[in-house]
Amino acid sequence: MRVIVIGGHGNVARLLTPLLVAGSHEVTGVIRDPAHVEDLRADGATPVVADVESMDVEALARLVHGHDAVVWSAGAGGGDPERTYAVDRDAAIRSMEAAGRSWVKRYVMVSYFGAGPDHAVPEDNAFFAYADAKSAADAHLEGSGLDWTILRPSRLTHDAPTGRIETSRTGAEPGSVSRADVALVIAQALERPDLAGTVVEFNNGTVPVAEELDASAA
């Protein structure tokens, strides 16, 4: 596949790109900072410098055109609620509309464990803007008509990869998961078209990623 990763210099994305390249996929990494171009080339991606926060649907459609799948791994990084909504909700939603306009049906969203209309984060909590923005983006994706998969990892760690997860399918509650294992889940989700229309909430666990994703698709 030709995969475009939006947020290509993020910690998860930089672990994802080599996995995709090793699987013979072509990767376009979208970054805002030109200083990151050589990092992406070293990872095996074709870097594209673009500010998705300021791009309209037409510009984003040109960006994703010709790819087989979109991975949204971008984020405002928290702190500023206004920018959080601008990136994690509004830009993400425009990218979905752009994907539909460019006939890029496969779309994988990296969200967080617990997102959704019942996220229960109070408005006076510093995390509220992120929870609200991600939940709105997820909801829009579910109604987009794209072949979507929403991945909701728990708290991210820098631990070594284990290749094993647990999901809410088997009763898992929010915990933690290594960024390397999140990258593995994204890579394997992209290769499973039968995961379209599926939300996968996960932590590190005891079940091999491939086995758990197959069960989630079923």
Task: Describe the model.
With 218 residues, the protein is an alpha/beta fold. The chain has helices spanning 11-22, 37-43, 57-64, 81-101, 128-142, 179-190, 209-217; strands spanning 2-6, 26-31, 46-49, 69-72, 106-110, 147-153, 155-157, 164-167, 176-178, 198-204, 207-208. The strands form two sheets. Strands 3-2-1-4-5-6-10-8-11 form a nine-stranded mixed beta sheet, sandwiched between helices. A two-stranded parallel ribbon has the order 7-9. Helix 3 packs across helix 4. It starts with a strand and ends with a helix. The model has no long low-confidence stretch (mean pLDDT 96).
Keywords summarizing the entry:
alpha/beta; two-stranded parallel ribbon; 218 residues
- Helix share, percent: 25-40%
Element pattern in H and E: EHEHEHEHEHEEEEHEEH
Instruction: Report the biggest beta sheet as strand number plus sense, adding barrel if it closes.
Output: 9 strands, mixed
The counted number of beta strands is: 11
Strand content: 15-25%
Q: Low-confidence parts, pLDDT < 50 over ≥5 residues?
A: none
The averaged pLDDT comes out at 96
Large-scale geometry: globular
Distance between the termini: 23 Å
User: Using only CA atoms, what is the Rg?
Assistant: 16 Å
**What's the helix count?**
7
Strand line-up in the sheet with most strands = 3-2-1-4-5-6-10-8-11
Q: What structural class is derived from the secondary structure elements?
A: alpha/beta
